[in-house]
């Protein structure tokens, strides 16, 4: 297959994906201890519907969970995710005292991967405990 055919196929696929406009991100508690509960709420606007859309939530190399599959309509939408705690068992503390990423990935049943919403996590040691601050990509 020629390189131009591959580029055309990729452009066709990308053109078929809905445009996602994230309008609000709420992260709580923030700041918090690294392993504390995490609540993430996102408002977003879709240019076209997404059937059985799911949001996969990951921190570093570990999946924190998935939002239940939902048919998202064209227009304004919302998802809410809660992880009762973040399990960091087996990960060296030195790997946290830096910046990391919390990624919420929207995937559609027909579209596959649609977008990644990336949030920077700053982890620092305070009074002998690892603390996290998660930055909204909208700020």
From TrEMBL:
One GO cellular component term noted in the UniProt record for this chain: nucleus
InterPro entries xrefs: ASF1-like_sf (IPR036747)
Record GO biological process: chromatin organization
Source domain of life: Eukaryota
Protein's name according to its UniProt entry: Uncharacterized protein
């Amino acid at each position: 297959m020629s390189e131009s055919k591959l580029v055309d196929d990729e452009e066709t696929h990308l053109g078929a994906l809905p445009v996602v406009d994230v309008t609000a991100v709420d992260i709580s508690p923030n700041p918090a201890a690294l392993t504390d509960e995490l609540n993430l709420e996102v408002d977003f606007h879709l240019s076209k519907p997404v059937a059985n859309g799911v949001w996969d939530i990951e921190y570093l190399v570990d999946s924190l969970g998935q939002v239940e599959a939902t048919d998202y309509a064209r227009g304004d939408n919302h998802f809410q995710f809660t992880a009762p705690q973040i399990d960091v068992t087996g990960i060296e503390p030195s790997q946290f005292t830096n910046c990391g990423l919390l990624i919420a990935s929207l995937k559609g049943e027909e579209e596959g991967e649609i977008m990644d919403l990336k949030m920077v996590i700053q982890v620092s040691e305070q009074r002998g405990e690892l603390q996290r601050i998660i930055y909204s990509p909208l700020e």
